[in-house]
Structures are given as C-alpha cells and as structure tokens.
Amino acid sequence: KTAEIARKSLPNCRIITGGFGSTKEPEKVLKAGNRAVDFIVMGEGEITFLELLEQFKKNDNDFFKINGLAFLDQGGCLVITKFRDYIKDLNFLPWPAYHLLYPDFLQYSGMHGLNNTYKNLKGPAGVLLTSRGCPHRCAFCSLGSKMYRERDIKDAVDEMEFYKNKFGIKTLQIYDDEFIGLSPKQNERVEESCNEIIKRNLHKSLGFWVQGRCSQFVELKTLKKMKESGIKWIAWGVESGSQKVLDSIKKDIKVENIVRDFSLAKKAGIKSLAFMMLGFPGETSADIKLTDKLV
Q: Are strands 171-174 and 149-150 parallel, antiparallel or unpaired?
C-alpha cells in the first residue's frame, strides 16, 4: 500500500524494498500493488543497494550482473540474481548516515521503539548493531544470516558516543540478535564492551536495552557488569513454557534455562521482557497452559 501511494505521488521514481518479508516472498511483493515495487534487495543490502544506485547513475539497465537482487523481467517473470555472500567484516560498513534525514533525525527517533513497558528508559532513542547473525536453528526464524559476526568494540562504542553528542540520544537499543547467551566467549566480549562504555562515562547518560538467548552460558557476573554499564532491559526469546514445543521448534533450550536466566537478571537488577509465541504446529491446550504457568 505504501509503495502504491509512493508510485502515484512520484510516478517516475524507482521503488526498492528489502528486509525479511521481501527477501522471503520476492514474487509476491513485486507483483503486489500493480507492480509498484521495482526491485528487491535480498538479504544484507548495503553493497547490493550501492551497486544498484551506481547502475541507475550510469543509465545501465543490465541488472542481471548485480548479485543479491530480485525484479520482474519485461515479461513479468521473476528474476533472482546470484546470492550475495554475507558481509564478513562489519567494520567495513560506515555508520548509518542519520545526519541526512530530513527534517531532523529526532523527528524519526523520539520515543519510537520504546513503549510504556520501558518506564526506566528515556527518549530520544536510537538503534545500534554490534554484531550480526545467529548460529541457532529455531524453526520460525526469519533471520537470513546464520553466520555470526562481530564489530570492533571500540568502533561500536564510538558510534554510541557520537549519537549521544550529536543527537542527544538517551536510550540505545542494541539490536544484535543475541547480545548475550551464545557462549562463554561472548560473555568476555560483553564485559569488554561494558567496560569501554563505563570508561567513557556513557553509562551516566545513556540507557540500553538488548536481546538475549536463555541458555546455560548466562552468568551473574556478566549481568552485573551489564547493569553497571547502563543496560536496563533484556528481551529474551522464550517462545513457550512447554519443553515439547521448545524441542519441536528446535529452540535448543530447556525451560529451566529460562527460569534460571530470568532469576539471574533479577539478581543483577536488570528487568526482563519475554517474547512469547502461541499457535505452533502440534501445540495443544495443555502446552499453552504450561506457557501460562511459566509466565
């Protein structure tokens, strides 16, 4: 619908979409809305999108040579070009060019991404990634990348500091798929990141919320360091209180992991949010009651 409106308002513009929905169902998206969408950038888009813009600039309509692209040919048939490899070196990517937003970045951030749940976090809010990908195999996952990659910690904290100084950001959502819970090695990285935030006194003016995986690898020591650095919330992927359902969706966690990690977060003084899901294939009313009991 949005693309249709844009097409009517600017009939000669090129409309490009990306993200999980477009990547998973490219033909559906390209044919919807009277074919309002021209191109889909599949998966991680930074390089593909740049190459597409450069192709427009050269007035070259040979889009078949751009990897990671989907479009309809002149006969209306779906074309998907060669898969583009994941960006392995995240430090290669520049920070988002928020300064180019019109009229002003704060018109876009405000309290977006924060609802009344997060009463101890203040706007304006921003979003940041320090890693990409998740190596796990949850059956419902829309995430394109299973390859876990990390940014340089100093560069990530530089970006946090820049948003605070440039835009007056007070809350940052660290949107890593799994900021905590992957491995003991990740705990070391988390603590190193927190120490860098504390060293720059950013914990005194910034609040954070992150996403986590309930697992046996979560440690109280790491959670306490997270609390000290200004992390106030962890949003955990719980999904179900039924072990049968957790196993069927290949979540690879135990119900006791969930209870333990929520308890540890509470001891550390961090608030927890649970992502829950109902309606999995094979889920029964008894399973739903177990989820209700867990909550």
A: unpaired
User: For 4-61, what is each residue's pLDDT tens digit?
Assistant: 999 999 999 999 999 989 999 999 999 998 899 999 999 999 999 999 999 999 999 9
Bridge pairing between strands 78-80 and 69-72? antiparallel
Confidence check: pLDDT of 122 > 90: no
Kindly report the pTM of this predicted structure: 0.90
Single-letter amino acid code for the residue at 154: K
In whole angstroms, give the CA distance from residue 141 to residue 190. Answer: 24
Nearest to 141 by CA among 277, 48, 273: 277
